[in-house]
Amino acid sequence: MNYNLISILGPTAAGKTRLASEIAFEFNGEIISADSRQVYKKLNIGTGKDYADYFVNGVQIPFHLVDIVDLPIEYNLFDFYKSFFSVYKTIIERQKTPILCGGSGLYLSSVIQNYDLKEIENFDSIENELKSKSFEELKEIYYSVIKKPHNKTDLTSKSRLIKAIIIEKSKKIIEGKIQINSLNIGVNPGREIVRQRIKTRLLKRLNEGMIEEVAQLIEEGIFPERLIKLGLEYKFITEYLIGKFSKEEMTEKLYYAICAFAKRQMTWFRKMEREGVKIFWLENPDPNLAKEIIRKHYVRI
After folding, report:
1. β-bridge mates for residue 99, sequence order
2. In this structure, which of 91, 138, 192, 207 has its CB flanked by the most CB atoms within 10 Å?
3. For the domain bounded by 191-260, which CATH number is listed?
4. What is the DSSP-derived secondary structure letter of residue 233?
5. Do domains 5-118+173-189+267-297 and 191-260 have the same CATH topology?
């Protein structure tokens, strides 16, 4: 197949960014982030913006869709989708290799599986309206917009139903969209190793000032409700700061929440595979193995 994109995906704490940078250095590439929270400015420690990972042999690898939105503005799937194709076009025009990297399953799927999306007016209000519906009401809406459903996993939870409904309602080719054929390399060290890395990384980030980062955002006027909506680190630390948990309770609850998130990420990637997406899996973010896969399969290079 004649691929026109390389995608690096996997659960949190797998080492994706550094691997993507090594690949970009080797193949004259630029990185497009597929992280739903790194788009926000000032969410640094909690989202893991490890800028040092973008330096390889003293050279900074160009990266995109990081630090582009001010809170409390909300950035959604369509915003990412539109931004991706805009950035992708400029990378191709510079005759560079585009490399998509991240762990946000829906963002990755929208590109790799060639969703056809159009902008929905009042996206957030529509999403909130769907969230207010019961599971049975959502099923009725689902069957009214998707006449011949092929993916039974859409019916397993309210969140999946809501995503499926929004995607179906959005179907239309957007300006600038092209057919993507992505060579996908996944990094999955295994559940236990990921859990160990999550714990080590969490303690490190807490020591580096992650709590202070959230406190500063609240001091600057970002409402706790908005931070809680961001999930994981920002949710649990905000709840700690407003007195809901002790620091020890917060740390424990946050650790288990991140582990559960990593599990959901892998569930999403397995779903992509069942839907026909080929992923070349690595146990470790080994740049040599990844480069070997790319040289063998990525025709454009």
Report:
1. 6, 31
2. 138
3. 1.10.287.890
4. H
5. no
| Total residues belonging to the chain | 301
Domain 5-118+173-189+267-297 -> CATH class = alpha beta
The pair of structure tokens assigned to 88 is: 């992708």
Structure tokens at 134: 């019961």
Per-residue pLDDT tens for 42-78? 999 999 999 999 999 999 999 999 999 999 999 999 8
Query: Which of 7, 11, 5 is closest to 187 using CA atoms?
Result: 11
Tokens of 202: 């969490």
211-261 pLDDT tens trace: 999 999 999 999 999 999 999 999 999 999 999 999 999 999 999 999 999
Q: Tell me the DSSP string of 210-267.
A: HHHHHHHHHHTT--HHHHHHH-HHHHHHHHHHTTSS-HHHHHHHHHHHHHHHHHHHHH
The three-class DSSP label of residue 64 is strand
How many angstroms separate the Cα of 71 from the Cα of each of 23, 38, 50, 238? 32, 12, 20, 15
Residue 41: alpha-carbon gap to chain centroid: 16
